[in-house]
Design goal:
mainly alpha; globular
């Protein structure tokens, strides 16, 4: 590992630490779901280490508890987690064109909402080692939270477990507020996204549509509308990819 990569890795760990703490807290409730599905603490730990996705795991544990088949579980998990396909496509544009396939595959292993947010916010090209640093602390936080949730989740009061999950929403706000304050277009898209998401989840006509499909449809529609109505001047931003700053470590 070069010195530059080491610095980026440490910065990724630093930025990923709050995410890991939030994951640990939220995963307690996931641990309860795993225990109700009949999984042991070790089985839940392995499941969370291999599938770092809250909605996907909740759906998987619910299907396991219902005695569903492997095929049904696989299809449901794919649908619920389908939004990560869009995030991966967007994040691939942050990598240098000559980035090796192994780096792309390793980053794709843990493209979560929060890790995607901090990675896509990096100036210039994304150094894969920054993502590795964030992943190195995020996955253990999620997996260990699920592990201890199985053991202690049912001991803690329900209100305490629910209160711990609020921290994750704070991380989302920390990701979207800074760029929204700098760019009115981003602020407008975020506001419209909130309103559209609220309506889609409240209107009866969308009751039969899964959360994953709703998220994908809204993301594509809003991104397309923003790209058409407010095209980006790439000439002005070309300096962000200058050779001297392509992999410069980020500091808040």
């Amino acid at each position: 590992m070069t010195t530059e990569n080491k610095i980026c890795f440490l910065h990724g760990m630093r930025d990923g630490s709050p995410i890991a703490l939030g994951y640990f807290a939220v995963a307690f409730t996931l641990g309860i779901a795993a225990r109700n599905a009949g999984l042991s603490a070790i089985q839940a730990l392995i499941a969370s280490a291999l599938n770092n996705a809250s909605a996907g795991e909740y759906a998987g544990f619910a299907l396991i508890a219902a005695g569903s088949s492997y095929v049904e579980t696989a299809i449901m998990t794919l649908v619920v987690n389908a939004r990560y396909l869009l995030m991966s496509c967007a994040l691939s544009q942050k990598l240098k064109p000559d980035t090796h396939l192994r780096h792309r595959m390793l980053i794709a292993y843990d493209v979560t909402d929060e890790i995607f947010g901090i990675c896509v916010a990096q100036p210039g090209y994304l150094n894969p080692w920054y993502a590795y640093g964030a992943i190195a602390v995020a996955i253990p936080g999620w997996a260990l939270g699920t592990f201890f949730g199985v053991i202690m989740g049912n001991v803690l009061p329900t209100r305490v477990v629910s209160a711990l999950s609020v921290g994750l929403y704070g991380m989302f706000l920390a990701i979207i507020i800074p760029p929204a304050r700098k760019d009115r277009v981003i602020a407008g898209v975020v506001a419209v996204g909130f309103a559209a998401s609220f309506l889609v989840n409240r209107l009866p006509v969308f009751d039969g549509v899964s959360t994953g499909i709703k998220t994908i449809a809204l993301t594509v529609a809003l991104a397309f509308a923003a790209a058409v109505l407010f095209p980006t001047d790439t000439d002005k931003k070309s300096g962000a990819h200058a050779p001297d700053s392509e992999n410069a470590p980020h500091s808040p």
